[in-house]
Amino acid sequence: MKDQVEKIIKFQNVSKVFPGVRALNNVSFDIKKGEIHALLGENGAGKSTLLNILHGVLTEYDGEVHLNNQIVKFKNANDAIHHGISKVHQEVSLIPELSVGQNIVLGYEPKKGMLIDNKSIHEKANEILSKLRCNFKSEDKAGSLSTGEMQMVAIAKALYHKAEVISFDEPTASLSKSETDSLFEIINELKQNGITILYVSHRLEEIFEICDRATVLRDGTFIESFHVKDVSKEQLIRKMVGRDVSSFAVRNKKGMIGEENVLEVKGLTINNVFEDISFHLKKGEILGFFGLVGSKRTDVIRTIFGAEKKSNGTILLNGKEVDIKSSQQAVKLGLGLVPENRKTQGFLKFFNNADNIALTKLEKFTKFGLISHKKKTENCETYINEINLRPANPHYLTNELSGGNQQKVVISKWLSSDASILFLDEPTKGVDVGAKAEIYRVMEGLLEKGKSIIIVSSELPEVLGMSDRIIVMREGRKVIELKNNGLKEEDVLQYAMGVTKNESQVI
Ligand SMILES: Nc1ncnc2c1ncn2[C@@H]1O[C@H](COP(=O)(O)OP(=O)(O)OP(=O)(O)O)[C@@H](O)[C@H]1O
Ligand SMILES: [Mg+2]
Asked: Which residues line ligand 1 (CB under 6 A)?
């Protein structure tokens, strides 16, 4: 009987079919009241789909969802929120023109008679925001907030609706280290207050840090639920992927670096953004850029790529000065960029996988002015095998893939291009451990073909594991350039955080 009371959510034989894909297949398990429960699985395993069913985003499915021993079926996401089931996404969508408070109470505004009671909105919202220790106010415009702050607004909204369950789907993917730490503190406090948490992340350290129990899904099927403290990282990976995978970024081969500089950047500046950035990149080299959020790494590479306008500085490709004014021009010159924000910059929404991957090199698939669909499909199939794209279907709309699989399409798009210099901005964001390892191998393959890579990542082990040299940036400036001969995390972090004095020293 006690067991009955403990379960807050019970999934019973939940199945969901999208055209051509069985995203969930008879999934049954339960979540206990007040626990932090991780949902784990490879890209496309069905984690987000299951959450979308719980949260009323997907309303057509088979099977039952029980909340406190009653079958529930929410009409839409707002209906779920109103019933105490809230969701915090990686990228929270708020209405930017409205105030924070208006976003929190949206659709359920406190009224005075017939009229919306603005004073009470802000009073209520500010009370919650101060509990969450936010340093912005209910009266502020939502559009002015950072990603981390927007997530706090989503949590505030959940609390306004007296949430019993809050789920987090890859919440830390765009957060800084300190934002992540404060999010974890808040999540632990929510748990202390009896709120049940569902948590999805590909960063396995986080699972061990905050989760009590975990459930693994593989290809839409339930595999196992267990206590996190009972398993090692290796066991966890094996349960998810079904085989042993190294969770570390490692280079199998080094020393493919040529003599010539393929890229030289001198004194690159955008006034008030970053200043005086100089470096070179050799043929066959991986150069890592590391810095904390706000260090402007992304702006630097976007500027080289012609996506932002420089104020000063010169760029040389193979020793020749170039003036890159647009991304199209950059592509013509042999550059490629896997952008940080794949949803808006990475692929075309109404294109299928084969078309999206072919985009950077259409002439390769064109004969006598006609595009060969067969060639495009074959090209896509190569990458489907190489980095395990799921569903393994060239004709599937990229927009309908799971988050991590979309990232794989964006990466493949550039791998299949003839770009000789690739800029990878957070290339493995949202990618599962198995696919990460595959992406690292593909990167090495590119070096063997004489290509060069610049990698920007906030995952320090990734930068350390893959780069030949590392440039550390802080607040728009290059702090130091380090040769990666057995560098340790602390060596790099101290420069990124500005705790060392020897800033001009080049090792
Ligand atoms: N709107 C949709 N239309 C068609 N297929 C979809 C849709 N949403 C998800 N799918 C498919 O359902 C399957 C499960 O996707 P889901 O997003 O649940 O995976 P996930 O476990 O969250 O993966 P990730 O770790 O990459 O976020 C995938 O094969 C995906 O392509
Ligand atoms: Mg997902």
From this structure: 18, 21, 23, 41, 43-49, 390-391, 400-405, 432
